[in-house]
Design goal:
heterodimer; A: alpha+beta; Uridine Diphospho-n-acetylenolpyruvylglucosamine Reductase, domain 2; Uridine Diphospho-n-acetylenolpyruvylglucosamine Reductase, domain 3; five-stranded antiparallel beta sheet; four-stranded antiparallel beta sheet; 12 strands; globular; B: alpha+beta; Aldehyde Oxidoreductase, domain 4; seven-stranded mixed beta sheet; 17 helices; about 25% helix
Chain lengths: ~325, ~700
Amino acid sequence: MHPFTLERPRDLSAALAFRAQAGRNDAAAEYIAGGTDMIQLLQEDVRKPERLVSLAGVLDDGIDIGPQGLRLGASATMAEVAAHPGVVEQFPVISEALFASASPQVRNQATMGGNVLQRTRCPYFRDVGYAACNKRSPGSGCAAIGGENRWNAVFGTSDNCIAAHASDLAVALVALDASVEIRSATGQRIVPFADFHRLPGDTPHIETVLEPGEVIAAITVPAHPVARRSHYLKLRDRASFEFALVSAAVALDIDGDRIREARVALGGVGTKPWRVPKVEAALAGAGLDPEVLRKAAAHAVEGAQGRGGNTFKIELMQRAIVRAVETAGGRA
Amino acid sequence: MITAAIGQPVSRVDGRKKVTGGATYAAEFDVPNVAHGSIVRSTVASGRITVIDSSAAEKAPGVIAVLTYRNAPKLAYAEHHGTTDPAVGERLHVLQDDRVNHQGHPIALVIAETLEQAIHAATLIRATYASEAGAIDIGGVEPVPPTGEASKWETRRGDPEKALTSAEVKVDNSYVIPRENHNPIEMHATIAAWDGDRLTLWDKTQWVDGVADEIAAVFGIPAENIRVASPFVGGAFGSGLRAWSHVTLAALGARVAKRPVKIMLSRREMYYGTGYRPHTVQRVALGASRDGHLAAIVHDAYHETSGYEDYTEALLDATRFLHSCPNVYTRDRLARLNVHTPTWMRAPGEVSGVFALETAMDELGVALKMDPIELRLRNEPEQDEYKNLPFSSRSTKECYRIGAERFGWSQRSSEPRSMRDGGLLVGWGMATATYPMNFAPASAMARLLPDGTAEVAAAASDIGPGTWTSMTQVAADALGLPIDQVKFTLGDTSLPKTPPQGGSMTMASVGSAVQAACRKVREDALARGGANDLAEAMRHIGEPIEVTVDSKPGDASQRFSMHAFGGVFAEVAIDPDLGQTRVRRIVGAYGAGRIINPKTSRSQCIGGMIGGIGMALMEHSVVDPRSGRVTNANFAEYAIPVHADAPAVMDVTFVDEHDPHVNPLGVKGLGEISIVGIAAAISNAVFHATGKRIRELPITPDKLL
């Protein structure tokens, strides 16, 4: 672990100044909130900031539900949001995604902002014993391609990176058309959650649209009929405390036996939270008949590229979509 | 007076200490002036170090010393093969030359004032290697016979090939178990402190005497000069049976730094700095008559080992005697790779070999359309057909009967995919379990005090089975005292010598010594005190009296084949669409001799069952075949069962078994047999549920799609 100075700014503007000063140089200063991922990255020598700037106490930790929808302060913890009665009732997919994440101890500590900014679980990124990782050391290559890639992505990959995004919450958020409130010294901007994470392309080390000196202030989720009938299905090797092999966030607006509108997003398979609009289009107007659902889910595979160890995800994600839609629709 | 402490479900005498933080583990000893060591490990699997630059590390804050092969003192590394070391080969030497034998080979040791400073300085060391191709992928090498006596790794009785060819019904398949790591909660740690030429080691180990002997040989000093203390161990499962290189490095570092040095491995280092259960590939072919009598068994296996040691384990032992069969061929071979040496992991060999054998038996039952219990009953041997010796006791039939009854086996419909619960497929499977009764020489001390209480001690270890407690019971029983008047102590080389806590031999070995010492000191006290009552006798004597007794096995092993046996049953529920398997129930019935403490014994068994769930469904150290690095060397991606994976029903029965031959206490041991057969029972249940036979563990969702 590289030695660092822990800065504890008294307010947000002081916190923003540290990173604005550092510019694109991550090594100069990085933020820490709950620290459940950052501490791992520091201990494994994956991140080596000179300064660690604590966001404790300087960001909103509120959970507010109104006619417009849900607003999650960046500092709200996973545990608080997961158990919030309004979230449980009106945005079940968010609550379920959070309860399916990590462990109670981690959820007590980890925050909304930190959760969507957590780094990939790609084993080659996390082990500095491998020289090649474009995400960790730009230009060094990708050891995951041609390696043990069971944990890696089949969507949105490039020749430079196949690392999967690890957050469950993010999958639920992208399904519900959430937005990110971004704060900087000069003001605020709103970015659709779907545009917040970047595809790896040639720059897998740049994972989001956050600019130096910007932080996530809050995440907002619009009120919408689909949110109430939503569900998160997470598949993995053991029953709990494990990242997803494949997950599906589904939200439905149902009229009798017909799906009026559907939102479907996938986790464990994309280099970013992966929305599947073609599946949504195929589900719109469909009934909950298993054959129909299977056909609709088959649209998910478009653009999927398996690399041996992770090829099974292409089949599994279709089944996950079918099951999650059945569950959300009250059929499973 | 008999207290009948034996057989009582006594709660752990050290339980309060453990749950209140009062139990001190290796890294927690408060040794004044301790410095901290951090090991730098290679990032290639094979080659030579061409350049190692420690200049930046040496200048880093707090650094006391940096040791590499260029400046480290030369160590004696005298010939020494303890009973837990592979008999063939030479242990890894550290910081003695530029050679790299495996990924994670220690190439430098940094000693600094604080742990953080040591870890940081370690990251500043730059090494370049002349990398050699090496052999990493087990699929890419031709297995070879182990060095040494051929009869140990290749056996034949009858004419198995001919019998297999002419058998009416045959199954012939290959079974794969990937590398698994022990993953105890407590990481390995050592604190080393020299006082002149005397060394004290606070170490996480299953064998304090073994550590002393090994480090004595490495440093060329008498073992008497070394004290090893290990009163509490936070799980080990075999990882603490050998003294690994970090123990040497701690002692070396302390010698160079001239002050105590502590080294604690990180979780990632646990996958490189200690051993693991080797990847095994096993062909099992069974031939039988249509009425289900085995005509031939061929069990041909190989497994990984390092380039510097021949690690072999009892992979084929059970096959040679578990079921009656006139024609049996077994062969074990080694895939020598640029990996570090595997080691003993809970039921080493037996659990892997029995997985293959008992899955094959299930496949044979399917081919014969015969109930798996009936198939086993038809092949119940009269005696050990390999050793040609009678069993000292063998309760397989009783275990099948009681296990089946408690499980409700008679309600099983035999056809695969025929049992359902809503949308879930339900499967029931069973397997036989066995593990040898091991009994090694041990010593124990018993001391009676004038107040009528007793102190009893043996080196020993308690990695979790409850040895602190069960030995207290044995002592109390032999002394005729209530257990709260007996203070038992273990985990220190200053105490009478014992064998390693492995191979399920602690109660047989240490227990017999404790019993003998306590009986002797009681007799002595009554004789000397001239009383029939111990308390009165001690009042008369008015001073402590003490005996140390050596216990060793007699010739029973020449007259009997001695093993524990069991029948294990599992129910799984599988989501056919999503490939998710959950174990709902496990029932185990065991003939394991006398049960000293039914409470800790049950805990042993449910621990083994949960370990078996891990083996069956999730455990797998995923080795990158290009580099030899373990890609999931952490607790997030190396899955072991969490509470949610443990079934609500884990039913353990010990069948009534009195075996006068095994050892004075009549015990057979439980640590290992409790995991044997579980993975086979689960995989057989998975087949019953789905009709899919998964022959490569773990049975993850992708394999059931």
